[in-house]
Specification:
The structure holds two protein chains of two kinds. Chain A contains eleven helices and five strands. By secondary structure, chain A is mainly α. In chain A, helix 4 (65-73) crosses helix 5 and helix 5 crosses helix 8. Chain A is globular, with a radius of gyration of 19 Å. By secondary structure, chain B is mainly alpha-helical. Chain B has a four-stranded mixed beta sheet with strand order 2-1-4-3. Classes of the chains: A mainly alpha, B mainly alpha.
Chain lengths: 210, 652
């Protein structure tokens, strides 16, 4: 049957080209289908579909930051998505080895698409916390905000001004920073988000994506 | 849309969760995936060769034959496959396009056959990948030229609507087009030759007369030569004037090299005419005659080879310059050495360093005239070193330069070609980018109109509008919509953006002063104010400081404003206007509110107000301010309002 065949092909050895081509020397084979099934909340079929798409774009099995930025930028033709893609990349690259393998990719997606609200908020906090020290400072938030606004590009209505991201950050901090100490901790963040109807609802927005 | 990375769209959408905590507005609803079909393998039978692929692979490009329902025409019920009676080899690259997102042009294919296949399967050639695009364009151009050549042979007659001037110019540029042109061509060629020969013969000593020594023919038969000269110059002048008259761009013609040569060739004669009686400058006049030799350059109009040579020299200028420079260095060095070596000897011809230049050059180029020879031993030693190194310095670079000539010549041609192609390629990329952006803007109208219709409840209309957007595209647009909501700004067309900027620049600040708002509602301002489509006075509802934004199509008002503000020419505008009547005042209010808050860009929330709603509504609409208009809530509005610092009043 087809499913079995593709399962086997996933497990087959890749052609390791030990050439002088240093550039494409990095290859990666994901763990078996069963392990991934156990570790994530995706079904077998979904993992197959995901892997096919992943491998199509990245035949070597890993995404490096450049490719990642490239791919992500194609969804936002009007603006510059590279900064936000950089932050996203760091959020997905959980072991910080400079490349996103299929496991990283699928774990991240599992949280985003099938995780509990707590996990999702955790993930978002991790995204905003650029230096991963457990606190979101205003500078970190400003970087993230600027990256998001960069994706809009130049031609917007109303016209984007310099202070817009900063003001947005102020609003954010006003909402989130309960004890006004200038940083947002994970608890403040989760607390505040759970009390916000908008955010709660939007967390469920992409559940049927796959 | 980035169809090549369609598989990553789910990832991009999932990653959008990162925007959610930052956004202050509710997000738009995600498009539903109505087709719950499992992914299945499709068999494509092309003239007997079976290709198989997933259905979703083909669905990536819904505007091609294989991606749309057009392929149903080719479905074979008995064998449950799609049969195409086409070339299977060419089909390979077409199917690969679906798989990889890149269209390649196989070099062994004939260009017209390939083009036909592309047209059949509904794929536009412009999306050929960069790796194969140049080859494809080259072949296409050759093909086109071949076709054109075939046509031109029949087309050499005079085109009916060329006026006299154009005919003349054409005759000058392409002598073979008409007999007159050919005659003219040969006549001028003949006279150029005559003129050059005359100049040469002028200086030959003719046989001496009885009691006079040899004198050059020019002085003997002055009148004859003068007549010849005059005739030639007259012909050249007439020719120049005719070319000047016929030239499409006179200024450009006058600046061109050939015309400068023409002028220089005939000028000495006229100057000579003017200065003929002035003995003082007759010396200079004689010198001027040397410029008559430039007439020989007029032959380059008649000879393609000369033109190529001239062009090549021009393009090799840097190599030649370097050769000259290194030669100069060597000459100076050796001249100096020889001078000081020969200083001691008496009656030495090496009187100064510049005088030694001549010796050095003659020796290095292995000419060896012998008019200057070193006499001292040291001089002879250095002289021999000089001649040996001369061989190296001169003889070696010359072949290199020659090969440089041909290489640079060909390279120049290729570089020009590539430059032209690069411009075209960049234009393509720009178009593709703007195409996808435009697709989003366009579908915004359609999609939002859709939602309007959804609530007014006409299913057929909804289907009519959604048929052209694939699920993939609608998901991508939803993603972009979420980004808009997060940042509380919208994507607009470039033209509209420039319009906006222009209007901003012309706008004067309204004089109204804001009043403090004392309503503190944590509603997402950009959407909350437009919360209720059906409620004409959203402010009334918002007055209650109800923190929960309305569910009923928060998009409606937004869409209304979008439609209002983005594209006045869109066909959706009129229909949406009908729907807007109920929400009219609220919309205006919001718009006004949006605008007024923009005027005051204060970081602290409560200061923002649309109190000047009535004052600062959009001028072209002049709406009456809604009665009892309390200022809308403002805490969460700061995201949108504080962010919106534009003082734009007219939205269209």
């Amino acid at each position: 049957q087809l499913a079995v065949k593709s399962n086997i092909s996933l497990q087959q050895k890749q052609h390791l080209v030990e050439d002088e081509l240093e550039l494409s020397a990095v290859r990666h084979r994901p763990e078996g289908l069963e392990q991934l099934e156990a570790q994530t909340r995706f079904s077998r079929k979904e993992l197959q579909i995901l892997y096919r798409g992943f491998k199509n774009e990245c035949p070597s099995g890993v995404v490096n930051e450049e490719t990642f930025k490239d791919i992500y930028s194609q969804f936002f033709p009007q603006g510059d998505a590279s900064t936000y893609a950089h932050f996203l990349f760091n959020a997905f690259d959980t072991d910080h080895n400079g490349s996103v393998s299929f496991e990283d990719f699928v774990m991240g997606l599992s949280i985003l698409l099938r995780g509990t609200v707590q996990e999702k908020l955790n993930w978002a906090f991790n995204l905003y916390d650029i230096n991963k020290d457990g606190y979101i400072t205003k500078e970190e938030m400003l970087d993230i905000m600027k990256a998001i606004y960069d994706m809009m590009g130049k031609c917007t209505y109303p016209v984007l001004k310099e202070e817009t991201p900063r003001q947005h950050v102020e609003v954010f901090f006003q909402k989130m920073d309960k004890n006004k100490d200038g940083v947002v901790t994970i608890d403040e963040f989760i607390d505040c988000c759970q009390n916000d109807e908008n955010i709660m609802r939007s967390m469920h927005l992409f559940e049927n994506v796959l | 849309m980035a169809t090549g990375v369609a598989a990553w769209l789910p990832f991009a959408r999932a990653a959008a969760i990162g925007w959610m905590p930052v956004a202050n507005c509710p997000m738009p609803i995600a498009p539903r995936d109505n087709s719950k079909r499992q992914d299945e393998l499709i068999i494509l039978n092309v003239s007997g060769r079976r290709f198989q692929t997933w259905r979703t692979t083909l669905d990536r490009y819904p505007d091609t034959l294989l991606g749309s329902s057009e392929k149903d025409f080719f479905y074979n019920e008995e064998t449950k496959e799609y049969f195409f009676d086409r070339d299977p080899d060419a089909f390979r690259s077409i199917l690969n396009f679906y798989r990889t997102g890149k269209l390649h042009y196989p070099r062994h294919e004939c260009i017209s056959a390939y083009d036909e296949e592309l047209t059949f399967f509904g794929i536009i050639p412009e999306i050929i990948g960069d790796c194969c695009y140049e080859e494809y364009k080259d072949r296409k151009r050759e093909n086109l030229e071949r076709l054109q050549d075939d046509q031109e042979e029949n087309k050499d007659m005079k085109m009916p609507n060329m006026n006299f001037r154009e005919t003349m110019w054409r005759a000058f540029e392409n002598p073979h087009t008409s007999t007159m042109a050919l005659v003219f061509y040969y006549v001028t060629g003949f006279f150029i030759a005559i003129s050059v020969i005359t100049n040469v013969v002028e200086t030959v000593p003719c046989g001496s007369t009885a009691n006079q020594k040899d004198m050059p023919c020019g002085e003997r038969y002055t009148v004859a030569f003068f007549c010849m000269d005059t005739a030639c110059v007259m012909i050249f002048t007439v020719e120049y004037l005719m070319r000047l008259f016929a030239a499409p761009s006179r200024y450009r013609f006058m600046r061109s090299v050939m015309s400068i040569i023409d002028v220089v060739a005939i000028l000495p004669y006229y100057i000579g005419l003017v200065m003929t009686n002035n003995e003082d400058v007759s010396g200079a006049f004689v010198t001027l005659r040397v410029f008559r030799v430039f007439r020989i350059f007029k032959f380059s109009r008649h000879s393609q080879g000369l033109r190529i040579l001239g062009y090549t020299l021009k393009s090799c200028a840097s190599e030649l310059g370097f050769l000259l420079f290194s030669l100069t260095m060597a000459i100076i060095i050796f001249a100096t050495v020889m001078f000081y070596a020969e200083k001691g000897s008496s009656s030495s011809k090496f009187t100064s360093i510049p005088a030694s230049f001549w010796y050095t050059i003659v020796t290095m180029t292995t000419l060896g005239y012998g008019d200057m020879v070193p006499k001292t031993i040291a001089g002879k030693i250095f002289g021999s070193i000089c001649s040996l190194s001369g061989v190296l310095v001169i003889a070696l670079p010359v072949p290199v330069i020659v090969s440089n000539f041909s290489r640079i010549y060909h390279q120049n041609q290729r570089a020009d070609k590539r430059r032209a192609q690069k411009k075209a390629r960049l234009a393509r990329i720009r178009i593709a980018k703007s195409g996808s952006a435009n697709a989003f803007l366009q579908s915004k109208h359609n999609g939002l109109l859709n939602e309007l219709l959804e609530l007014t409840g006409t299913e057929e209309d909804e289907h009519k509008l959604t048929k052209s957007i694939s699920l993939l595209e609608s998901q991508h647009h939803h993603l972009l919509h979420c980004l808009e909501k997060t940042t509380a700004h919208e994507f607009v067309d470039e033209q509209i953006f420039e319009q906006n900027c222009l209007e901003t620049a012309l706008q004067t600040f309204p004089s109204g002063s804001p009043s403090m708002s004392d309503h503190d509602s944590p509603v997402g301002g950009c959407c909350g104010r437009r919360g209720k489509k059906n409620n004409p006075l959203p402010n009334a509802s918002l007055l209650t400081a109800h923190p929960i934004p309305t569910h009923q199509g928060p998009l409606q008002e937004l869409s209304a404003i979008h439609i209002q503000s983005s594209d006045p020419l869109s066909h959706t505008a009129s229909r949406s206007n009908l729907n807007l009547k109920t929400g009219d005042s609220s919309k205006i209010n919001c718009k006004g509110g949006r605008i007024t808050t923009a005027i005051i860009s204060l970081p602290t929330p409560p200061a923002l107000t649309p109190d000047g709603d009535g004052l600062h509504g959009p001028p072209q609409r002049r709406p009456p301010p809604p009665p009892g208009n309390p200022p809308p809530p403002s805490i969460q509005t700061t995201t949108s309002s504080a962010g919106i610092n534009i003082v734009k009043v007219s939205a269209l």
